[in-house]
Structures
1.
Amino acid sequence: MRLLSLCVLIGGFVGFFAVDARAQTDINNSAKSLLIQRPVRSWEFLCAVGKRAGLFGNESGKVEAWVYPLKVLRDFHVTIHHDGKALPAESLVRTIEARPESTTLVYAGDTFTVRENFFVPVDEAGAVITFEVETEQPLELEVAFHRDFQLEWPAAIGGTYENWDVGLNAFTFGEESRKFAAILGSPTAREPHLEYETNYSSTHENSVRLGVTAKGRETKRVVLAGSVHGAAEAEKTYKTLSAAYAELEKQSAAYYSEYLKKTVSLDLPDPQLQEAYDWSRVSLVQGMVANPTMGTGLVAGYRTSGEGQRPGFAWFFGRDAFWSTLTLNSEGDFANVRTALAFVAQFQREDGKIPHEIAQGASFVNWFKDYPYGFASADATPLYIIAMNDYVKASGDAEFAKEKWASLGKAYEYLKSTYDSRGLPQNLGSGHGWVEGGPLLPVKSEFYQSGLGAEAVRALSTLALLTGQKELGETLRKEAEKQWDLVQVSFWIPEKKRFAFAISKEDKQVDELNILATVPMWFGSTTGAFASRMEENLRQLTDFDIQTDWGTRIVSNQSPVFSGGGYHYGSVWPLFTGWASVAEYRHHQEFAAYQNLRANGLLALDGSPGHVTEVLSGDYYQPLSTSSPHQIWSAAMVISPLLKGLFGLERDAASKTLTFIPHVPANWTDFRIDNVRIGESAITLSYHKAPGEITLEIARVGGECTFDFEPAMAGPAMEVRAEINGRQTPVDYAFNSQHHHVKLKFALQEGKNVVRLHVKNDFGLTHDFRLPDLGSKNSDLRVLAQTGDQYSMVLTLSGRTGTAYDFAVWNPSIVESVDGAEIVKQPDGAPRLRVHFDARSGEEYSRQQVTIHFRQPKVTKKPKAGE
């Protein structure tokens, strides 16, 4: 078991661990040079991608090559000729090194090493594979592959051929129309062997040797290029890559480094979460693909195609792109959001429906008429309006909304055309919602879909106001309120205290506890009766039946439809986990929220290096065998739970307001958020806390900005004094039995602003989270509910029977007594709150309530009740 620290605030905002100086240095350096280095897992996905090409394979060293939308070859692999032996390189691979711009495999023999580096430039239609050889004795590399020269499915070229070009020292691929071409070669290539087929024998493998390295060090290279515009263009790219590959690799490294600097940067006290955040920003932007016949947009993910012609989800998806743009907005990458939205919008159907899937070969076939996938979903249409509003609100680019207003209006009219007699948007007859197949279907309308529909109307009302259409905006606002009311009334099951999964064809509620309910919770109201219902529903999504140690299942494993391998009826999606985390943060369930956030973050470091997989088993910690290992919206769901959830960062460019509602873990005494851009201003937040005091420095450069600061506080911390730039300031409060926030709102002055909160009676608990070994089952603690006030804190816990779990305790001096647990001291003197789950219950998991009684604080100033 790998012990990974999960330090979660329970009801408190102040913790107790200082940041180690060496760890802080590592954090500061991590964004400058990302590197994941570990022993090879031969089955794990390996990739190197750019906007125009990709190499996909596994860590054994076998890869396939794509120059979009062409698949050029597959089964590329290496044989090492040494000391009279032909050694398969996959038997000697030892280490993988992943960087944003390239991936390296290290092979080792008794007297040699070979470093094979897979590199795809950011903006070139090709790839370069280099081999750094170091040997004591003569050694030669031989590379082999299968030609697989075809367009991405469902398009096809037809008959293709291959030749050896002596002048280029390369294999050339072509077809009779001479429109499609590719080249693979090396300046040191010799002894080429081409595929052939006769009446007597055949082979489909091609190979070439790269020249002998007698002794010492030498670098060999293989260069690949392709084009859908003919051999001349492919040859030009091939020569460019051959001559300038080293400089291009430096440029690609600089591109990713600059990207990390110009988007929202974090310095976190958690090195693993820091690394996961930085890698996820890289992984997400690597979804931007420049298709030579259709333009640039966001694809959904990457996986090997094997003997087929579809590399996972490496084609354009409407809803995938829209969910990912919400994250790109949060990190400030507005340029790519605008590009991605415009790309999907160009394929909008005449009746206003937004496309679901757009294959990379769509321009070579009648994609939208001859195939059923183009407009298969209903949720892409409301998500388009939601994503547009999120972009305009965060960026301030109202002109883009004006430019796309006709498109937005058509999408809205299509959405309304799907309403049933009561006014809910239907899936039946208009396209699937989230669930595409399996035992959860058929249904008339999902709660997920209806929530998106209501949010789309609210988003359009905001867009109308931002584009100067005040009367329309007000009309739509009232309509949105009615839609949200209709949604909660139609789906709420009072006796179960949760929302139904769907409305059936017979207009009855379909009761199935499911994680899709968190999507309307992401967007819906955080106050009033609706919020209370959401919180009640959320508490049912944190126990072992839904939440695993590696994320959240779509449905409970107690459901009769559940299967751990069920794509839409039992598996764990990092996307779901991210939805749940954001919803839980917004509804003040910090422990479950952080556990979900950290689960996604650790997946980025425990699979294909730097990437988050698409879907995992609901039974055991391992990806499904069909999972796309580099899934774009999975990477997004490391970033959104951090920025939108844990930090509660929201921009409103029109009002020039930045909102910061942090629910940070108890041990986060120092962190920094850089380059939060809103309008013409750039904001940096530097946070520090010590016993009794929180200090937040806000630096503003550029235009005006109002700052809304609402930190979470511990239950007993009922007395807070605030100073802004040295002047005492009144504090407002929002609190109930589940949460407690102080609220400050003020205009930021140019330069440095300092907020100091003087806090009495803070309290915090932390818990170590264990990520299971691959193939293992659930084992860790769950915090199902937390309530309290200045006198006590009540925790409802779930754990594996026969197991004891420890919480670290901060500020134990205010604890009077504990029921349901015990305070124990560790050898280092640090107190722990230890909870035992008695094995005598006979159940695999059991529940326990723990009550912590505080010494009665002396409150000199009572807060005003908020919610």
2.
Amino acid sequence: MSELIVVAFDDPNKADEVLNELRMLQREYLIDLEDAVVAVHRPDGKVQLKQSVNLVGVSATSGGLWGGLWGTLVGLLFLNPLAGFAMGTMIGAGTGALAGALSDYGIDDNFIRDLAKTLTPNSSAIFILVRKMQTEKVLNDLSRFRGRVIRTSLSPEEEARLQAALSGIAASPAPGNTAGAPGGTEAAHA
């Protein structure tokens, strides 16, 4: 089960920096993110969302490929595979882009907007869904960022450890949690 973590920052660019750091940690297999969204509460009071997954682009590409394949097959039936490929690609990309624009992946956008509106103007927050992580290593790496936890689905002990790391306070490991997932559910191997 994924864990939701929302951290607010006083700097409007800090959440972007944290997202870049989390992507690096993901490439190193220290964290497995299901979704991540940066919300910036601009000075004019508007909330800007930056999705980490571009559903419109991904869906358009996928739809274009499938449309091209099916268009070619239909075109073969009518002895004009090139025209079928072109029409299929255009129709597939268009329907894929529409499907991507209408779908919501991961964290609900309305939840993000509502919570981001409570931030002070000219600040930011990062919303992440974590499948699993190497807790000690990730907290060590994130300790250089100063932020405050505003919402999580973590246990109270794990939330306190995260807040301590983001505050620059050395936190002791939770009892029985030597490595692994945000709830300390991984067992140590002998």
3.
Amino acid sequence: MTTQADEVPIELIAEHVKKGQCILFLGAGVHYPPPQGSPYEYPEAHRPPLGRAFSESLAAKCNFAARFPKESTGSLQRVALYYESKFDRNALVGEVREAVLRGKRPSPVVSALARLNFPLVITTNYDQLFEAALRDANKTPVVSVYDKDGHAPTQDYPGNLDAQEPFVVKIHGDVQAPESIVITDEDYIQFVLRMSDKEPFNPVPLTFRYQFTRWPTLFVGYSLMDYNLRLLFKTLRWKIDAAKVPATYSVDLYPDPLILDVWHNRQRYVKFIAQDVWTFVPQLYRAITGEEMPK
């Protein structure tokens, strides 16, 4: 079993980004605090909570542990479903809004990625911090938000992709569109069902699915231990010959040995970069701009 990730020359990824030919797949891990000794700061008050912390907070508010004493309070999909059933959907979305909006700011990592030449970004984050960072960088994002019911055609990019007007696809919803949030078990089941919809109702815009077969993809802020992320990735690659899919890179300091063996060594889906985001993004920023990542 493979237990170590291969070395991936950062210059290789940098060249794709410089050309504006790399898809950024942005996850919640971009909100991690910098490690001890880092020259960067990201105060806790400015950070959205990560999934487990948010799940435990919800669990405490709905007394999940008393109702399900043998289950983990860190299972967000399950805890969120119970919270919703005990209170209501509006209350659940209100908790999400409070957690990811009030007083939150983009991290130096998010701000640096927003300055780089990514014309196409897909994210499972509910917050609007990356869009805010894009606007701070004098860019105008075009945002497509997941529609749970699929009654209207999926919003696609109007024209040719432009890194100054990047296309941000919010595949699990946006906090300002309560009906779009994918958080409970039932939401994820609905999302998987929607992935089989035909044009123009498929929840993943055609522009993304087309470029996914042409440009490399860079995962930042994810762990492929996340079952739902792997399911999404496999669905996007479904019935596409491996020879037609460009390289995929995943920044993950501690990739799971089993996932590493299956996804890297055997199936060659992903090349893992064993770094944390606070090490990788400054290196990528330096390789592209020749400057240090701003603090």
4.
Amino acid sequence: MLSFRTQAKSTPAKRKLLPASLRIRPQTLDGAYNSVEDVLLSQGTAEQGLSDREAKERLTTQGPNEVTAMGRVPLLWQFLKNFGNPFVGLLCVLSLVSFFLGNIQGAVLILVMVGISVLMRFIQEFRSNRTMAELRALVGTTVTVLRVSDRGESRRQEIPLREVVTGDIVILSAGDMVPGDVRMLSTRDLFVSQSVLTGEALPVEKFETYQAPSRRTRPLGREDPTEVSNLGLMGTDVVSGTGTAVVLATGDATLFGSLTKKAIAQRALTSFDRGINQISWLLIRAMLLMVPIVLLLNGFSKGDWGSSFLFALSVAVGLTPEMLPVVIAANLTRGAIAMSRNRVIVKRLSSIEDLGAMSVLCTDKTGTLTIDRIILERHLDVLGNEDDEVLEYAYLNSYFQSGLKNLLDAAILEHAELHETLRVSDSYRKVDEIPFDFGRRRMSVILEKQRQHHELICKGAVEEMLSICSFARLGGKSVPLTPQLVSQISEVRNEMNESGLRVLAVAYKEFGLEDVNYQYRIQDETALILAGFIAFLDPPKESTAEALTELRQRGVTVKILTGDNELVTRRICRWVDLEVDRVLSGSEVEAMDDLELRQAVVSISVFAKLSPLQKARVISALKMAGNTVGYLGDGINDAAALREADVGISVDTAVDVAKECADIVMLEKNLNTVVDVVMEGRRNSANIVKYVKMAASSNFGNVLTVLGASAFLGFLPILPLQLLVQNLLYDISQITIAFDPVDADEIARPRRWETQSIGRFMLFLGPISSLFDLATFGVLFWVFEANAVTKHPVFQTGWFVEGLLSQTLIVYMLRTRKIPFVQSCPGGPLLISTVIVMMVAVLLPVSFIGSAIGFVPLPSGYFFWLGGILSLYCLAVHVIKKWYLARFKSWI
């Protein structure tokens, strides 16, 4: 599926017709300038739409409506791009150097390590991509098109976005994604957000006819396509209004398709990406520091610069965590599959890690704190008395509107008995509509009543409705809307708000036969007669209070960002035990500069009457204050906030634009599910950090040992090839760490990548292994007299076995802050892989493979000493672990 999180901005790089960042097919621009008849003819279609057979044939010819760079990637490219990993590239260079220095075995072994790393990462990514494709199919975006049946009947039909073809006639309304580059055929107050392409926050209006700009900056045919008034572009979304359009281009042929590579390149790194990069460079810097020292010490002390250089290269390989990409891919894939069992679909894998780091969750009120099922509780006149006529006006408005019907409309339309009472089909005919938008916060329909007059019926937010009303209906009569009456009306509204009811106002206006027209505009919403109120109840979920408490206990602060008013929001928050000291309104947010807002958002938990852009601005301020922010939303007004958040969360019932902007889609809108996915993200992050800390400290300890041995031994403590084998076996034992359970106290708080913590862990734990390596050297040197030239292979074999056993065994000590096996047991896969590698460590020296790379059988007495050294090592690590925890208050 497409992902529209990136906001690409145009640049002035020139090409023949248009700037390079705004490439668009000439045929598409021609479609903007030509007549509707010519456009339909050129596309081989009609206003009734394509036939099912023709659409199927075009889909076969054109392929799915997907952007290649964001859709399916060829398998060969998936495999080859894994060689672009910095660690893999480093190993390939080291292999070439070894080959030219004559160390053929070492070069081959390094390539084997590269091959294993690349192959395993490819397998993980292939499985991940396949899993993601299957999961995304569950939340696919659909498009409404006109299709002609075999009997010649034109009908509306919902089809997956990827099945849209050129020539399709699409129906657009609020919340829809524009499914391709399209030419408008008809529009009604159609406003489209193009921020995904232009970065501009404000929506632009689209028309059915081309309207030349008042100040033309470019010749006809060379215009910026985002400024062409009758073109809709793929990836943009409808904010308000309705329209029909013909599809001119799909997939890669669209403007969005031409921008994809540039947009992906410009995408900001997430906190997870930044953390991985920092760790990678930390290890690379350590390697660049240590390897020259090892080379110089061995070269000067032994005089064999060729062997010393090969040994230094082996140390470089030993410091390279080439399995890091594999471990990350395995963790993220396992996390995505685990989340799918909780009916959660992950669209962007790295968002799992962002979930683990999330410290603030922002959410809308409706459907999150509440049951997402609106009940129409009251229909009252302006003084608060029951009035059936108010409900009748509201029913007509909701029934005839063609835009996005929300939960409030659904609650009104449940009164289906009014359809017969009002004789809707016989007495009313729809003339026009003024769609909803977030600036006006209201919408109107214009009906012809019994062919006698036109009647404008408007419903919307109370404040905005009062601003356009001049009269009120009392006792069946229209009276002027005096300040005293407005005060009484406000009291009625406030009383209902304080009871937790959401209130809309309903007003109307009649046009006599001499005043009617068939093109009504916003300007006609004036001097209306206020009929009364309709009040809705959205009861809180029983599980909400418990989920909010659990999130707080887990270190996640919940903040409410809603377009509803303060009184209703306060009452709902009290129902779910969410403390509210102060509510910040949208107007207050608008009046603050960035610094003031950043300071305010830290302490305030509830924001009311926010516009879509104000929601995004609050999230941006929270991020600037140092938080990792998630946002849960499902409406058109949530799209900007979902894009701005570190991790966007939506639901399967959300409007198309919300699902496309989200990183994670839940099949059930439930805060308890959010708790589950947050904990899964923390588990994934913890296991990745486990691998990094264990690998970094182990490799650092090995390098310190090598430095000590290079300074005092007259021979290499281990051959280059043997060191490579040791590193390979250790990395293989760690692949299963993705399936290791994580202690509850390690995931009790949000997890953020801290390079400083990893570096500190490496510096404190690494030297401990070096001390026991040196103890092993002492045993081999003095007890078994392996310092003699003839016994150098015994020394090298002994350190190989001790080094691999200590590295692998210590995994059990480092994976938990608790006592291993007593208070915390490793997962089955990790236990099996580490035990197998330890068995290989003991048996390899007596095998023909071990003999081929320079190993010899060890004296049986050595294993007695080895058992004591390893036992003391584990005890020492446990003591250091207790001190480290007391000193730094953290472990993994």
